[in-house]
Amino acid sequence: MGHPPFAVTVDLVVLTLTGDELCALVVRRGISPYEGEWALPGGFVRADEDLPDAARRELAEETGLAPGTVHIEQLAGYGAPDRDPRMRVVTVAYLALAPDLPTPRAGTDAAEARWAPVRSLVTERLAFDHDQILRDGLERARAKLEYSPLATAFCPPEFTVAELRRVYELVWDTRLDPRNFHRKVTGAEGLLEPTGRTTTRDGGRPARLYRRGKAELLYPPMLRA
Fold this sequence. Notes:
The chain has helices spanning 51-63, 118-121, 130-147, 161-172, 178-187, and strands at residues 6-18, 21-29, 38-39, 42-44, 71-78, 88-97, 110-117, 192-199, 207-212.
């Protein structure tokens, strides 16, 4: 008895901040199945590729960003037998985060690529099971902001506390008390490292510039109150 066709793909939940919106990268499919529908970027893993290499390649093809310039981590695997009408396809999803990513470019099998506000995407139907993958990626990002320095991945190399607070507010979709937030992040061991410089780009008085510290986990976790 022969084995049915089987393939492995990688799919990407790519999040960035554009203006005052948390946005995800989506592509309009140019081929069947789901031709003309919106989907997450991704593609088949090549025979000579490891999974992380495939994810970084797909990210570079869709955004033009060189590997190593974007935070990327494995999210989860999805293997429902009927998730792809072509054949049995198991996908490994990755979460990628970066500040102010450039205008995306459509890959070889996509007709169009764009940044779409997450608040609108979560109510839409994406191709395959990509709406579920997007929700899972968003929840991973929101949860990790509680206990890790992940929010700094959305910031430039040097940033103000106000810019960091904006990241938390947009990802969590809530308003935070500025004074309480400032006290928490500057008091969190290893989260921020002062640069000794200031900036007026936030408006008003000069604000101190920070860079990401060396902490991998935050104790106590950041609370949304």
